[in-house]
Design brief:
450 residues, uronate isomerase, domain 2, chain A, six-stranded mixed β-sheet, 9 strands
């Protein structure tokens, strides 16, 4: 009987690692490997006021706003009348000075301040405000991506947002580290309102989906795909989403979204389980979570074997079902720990479960960042948890007689952080280089209207 603790040593000429060296190598590799952040709400500097960063934006993020109202007598009605700087001061005083910032969202702000060498025990925001206000946005983006060890981010691009489309119409090129994803929420969840917007742009559509509506929606989406060159299409769906169903959403999915995905070879990302406006007084902070029907995603996969789906669910209770579904459908890729799941204890549980059921054939995390600096804390925190989970998986291999070498760790981590997603969306090295070179024929030209 072999004693793995004796023969699997760092001194082995074959490069096999003992447990102590294995732990060190996993930590070093996970912390150093660049990542593609596959789902964010970030924009490059070219998008101007749509790009958010700085201490006031960090502190008024809806994660912290929801916490604030558990600890203050200030009503939501009063809070929303305050200037953003006043809101930020209230959040800082309440959650960081008068309380210990131990929630994940509060700890994240501390991580960001510490990364920039700012005082995390201060009673006011004078130093932090001065620091962020002095930053050149281009330099700041460079530094944040460097600190987070993020190679590139995928944006959330709403083709029905007129402010955003105005930017696409006016800029010649954008920062090539910011990749596009076409968001379908207005189309699938708010069609009556979206139909009015498309009609105002001259498209022959109506809320009843009659006449030329299907063809006109598709014509618009085809233009958006040509303009933005998205890596995938995506939608956030409620917890009661069903497929198939006899509603407008299902009709748009079947007659427009899935054919567009097929024709343009775009994966379709499904983010399922949100309950909007549970407490409307909290605005963006008032959304909740519900357990969803994973079989709806299974039916999409079985009926469309030629389309690749990305999927994440908001409810902790759906995670095991998602893993089992992914074992049955090779066109289904689980990704990330979304929103309310992005807490260390739950990330560890979900990531461990995925390793046990799926090996390395999943995407462990995305930041869902809305403020630029979120990249720093969300990836720093997640990397430590992912390192723990992958080390535990290797340790279990050692216990049954299978050694692990450094080259295997590098391969597995690169697959989890870059490879799985790149393959899923056909983001080849050549395509990445073409995107970064942005040849003249692919440049977004000003003056072309939708």
């Amino acid at each position: 009987m072999k004693d793995n603790g004796d023969i699997r040593t760092n001194g082995s000429p074959s490069g096999i690692l003992d447990k102590a060296e294995l732990r060190r190598q996993v930590d070093d590799i996970v912390l150093a490997t660049q990542v593609i952040d596959i789902h964010t709400h970030l924009f490059p500097a070219e998008f101007g006021r749509l790009s958010f960063y700085g201490i006031d934006n960090l502190l008024t993020y809806h994660y912290l706003v929801a916490e604030l109202f558990r600890s203050t007598d200030v009503s939501p009605e009063i809070f929303w009348t305050m200037r953003k700087s006043e809101q930020a001061d209230l959040v800082w005083t309440t959650l960081f000075v008068e309380s210990s910032p131990i929630s994940e969202a509060a700890r994240g702000v501390i991580t960001v301040l510490n990364a920039f060498g700012l005082d995390t025990n201060t009673t006011d925001l004078i130093e932090a405000r001065a620091f962020f206000q002095s930053r050149n946005i281009d330099d700041h983006i460079d530094r944040v991506l460097e600190l987070a060890r993020v190679d590139s981010v995928v944006m959330t691009n709403d083709p029905f947002d007129l402010d955003e489309m105005q930017v696409w119409n006016s800029v010649e090129a954008i920062d090539s580290r910011f990749l596009a994803a076409l968001r379908m929420d207005p189309l699938l969840n708010h069609w009556p309102r979206t139909s009015e917007r498309l009609a105002s742009l001259g498209y022959l559509v109506d809320s009843h989906m009659s006449g030329e509506t299907v063809l006109e929606i598709r014509r618009y989406l085809d233009k958006c795909v040509a303009r933005m060159r998205p890596l995938y299409m995506a939608v956030s769906l409620p917890d009661d989403f069903q497929y198939p169903a006899g509603d407008v959403r299902n009709r748009i999915i079947n007659e427009i979204v899935l054919p567009a995905a097929r024709d343009h070879r775009l994966p379709f990302a499904l983010m399922v389980g949100v309950r909007r406006g549970v407490n409307p007084a909290l605005r963006a902070a008032g959304d909740g979570v519900g357990r969803a029907d994973v079989s709806a995603v299974e039916r999409l996969c079985v009926e469309n074997p030629d389309i690749r789906f990305l999927a994440t669910f908001l409810s902790r209770e759906n995670q095991h079902e998602l893993c089992v579904a992914a074992r049955k459908f090779n066109n289904l890729m689980p990704f990330g720990c979304w929103w309310f799941l992005n807490n260390p204890s739950i990330v560890a549980e979900i990531t461990t479960e995925r390793f046990e059921l799926l090996g390395t054939t999943f995407i462990p995390q995305h930041s869902d960042a809305r403020m630029l600096e979120h990249l720093i804390y969300k990836w720093q925190h997640s990397r430590h948890i992912i390192a723990d989970c992958i080390y535990s998986s290797y340790e279990r291999l050692l216990s049954v007689g299978r050694a692990v070498e450094r080259e295997e760790i590098i391969r597995d981590v690169e697959k989890l952080f870059i490879g799985n997603f790149s393959e899923w969306v056909s983001l080849t090295p050549e395509r990445i280089q073409r995107h970064r070179d942005r040849p003249e024929t692919d440049v977004v030209q000003p003056g072309i209207e939708f």
